[in-house]
Amino acid sequence: MKLFVATEAKSEIRFHQISRKTGERVRHQKVTASAVEDNPTEAGEALDKNDIVKGYEYRKGEYVTIEPKELEALRIPSKHSIEVSQFVNLNELTPEYMEKPYFIVPEDDVQAEAFAVVRAALKKTKKAALGKIAFGGREHVFAIIADDDDKLGGMMGYTMRYQEELRNPAEYFKDIKKVAVNEDSLELAMELIKRKAGKFDPGKFKDQYEAAVRELVEAKVKHAPLPTEETEAPRKAQVINLMDALRKSVGGGKETESAAGRKKPAASEKAAPASKGKKGISLVKSAKSSSKRKSA
Fold first, then answer.
1. Per-residue pLDDT tens over the stretch 124-141
2. Taking CA atoms, which of 49, 96, 169, 211 is between 20 and 30 Å from 178?
């Protein structure tokens, strides 16, 4: 089988490092450590790429060199083919383990029949094949599933993360306060989800950050006023009952009970900051740099 990377970088915004004083582009060159240590104020002689080899530091300051041909000669069965070790249910492949997608096609017409049989079997049993394959300097866990489009007749492959690559979720979730879910709040939240539910269309999502950067670049090139985010006049802080916010969102923006008749929030109902200019309700706030835990 042949593997083709299924993703590509679409961003057209590319930045270079420029000297603030001269406006020249900054170039990075590889030099020896001794050249920098002996003459820190002078540029060292750049090394040719053929003079650079991989090295593993087995003791502080001491290295063993590894030649490319030695890596190529490693005896790894999965280097030349995908070794399938088991089949698992599709719903067992949880998103946190999935990494990079690949298109899988048969090597040639001779393989096409066997390829089609394996694809049909995977689809009918709703299973994924799990195996290993070595490329890119490491051995990957690899999942193979049948693509949904029978007209195309292809299969998808995904490199997967090893368990030790994932942080322990308990370290991040352990401080979440355990509260009883209020039934009225739950029903309102479910109603909001129901009203805003729809078929997933990835084409609807666009990178607005890139568009904003492009607008900034064009303004600078044309010496036009720089675009800035519209800011509102500061308002008095307002605490909103989550129940009221849900009712307002589900009710299409209309308050369902008067301020005077509002009941005291239940212990399980947390207050959320008001968000002007957005439809619906924001339930999650991004983590700030003040967090003690390491971010992804």
1. 999 999 999 888 778 899
2. 96
